[in-house]
Amino acid sequence: MDDATPTPRDLPPEAKGNSKWHDTTHAVWKRSSLSREDSSAVVEVAEFDDGYRAVRDGKHPEKGTLFFTPAEWEAFVLGAKDGEFDIPEEYLTAEEAAIQRGEVPVTAVVAPGSPGAEQAPEGEDRGREDRDGGAAAG
How far is it, in rounded angstroms, from Cα 11 to Cα 14? Predict the structure, then answer.
């Protein structure tokens, strides 16, 4: 047996039978500028060259990753822009209501610990995520 033959690495559980799965080892994860470290969960989004997206809880990435086709992501973004997922304002603080109404600017920033996180200052626009709904929800 040839010892130089590489062995395929074990795929994570979410990859098995999932045609949408992408390797996230070198993914650049972005999160909303509104995400706060004191939140119970922080949504992070990664975009791949083929338009697929991956979404995870940035505070607990070990819990798994959801993958979306370009069409699924577009449907989600359009629904969010149309208010499909809005929370009734009576349940929101004044600040949350202003954010939901679009009165507070939201940008996507490279998540701490993501490849390239140290390449640009925090808060600098590093992609189109803030314009197409990439990590604008936090």
Answer: 8
pLDDT at 33: 81
CA atoms within 13 A on the CB side of 108: 22
DSSP states along the chain: --TTSPPPPPPPGGGTT-TT----TT---EEETT--TTSS--EEEEE-TTS-EEEEETT-GGG-EEEE-HHHHHHHHHHHHTTTTPPPGGGS-HHHHHHHTT-S---EEEPTTSTTTTSS-TT---SSHHHHTSS---
Looking at per-residue pLDDT, the higher value among 91 and 135 belongs to 91
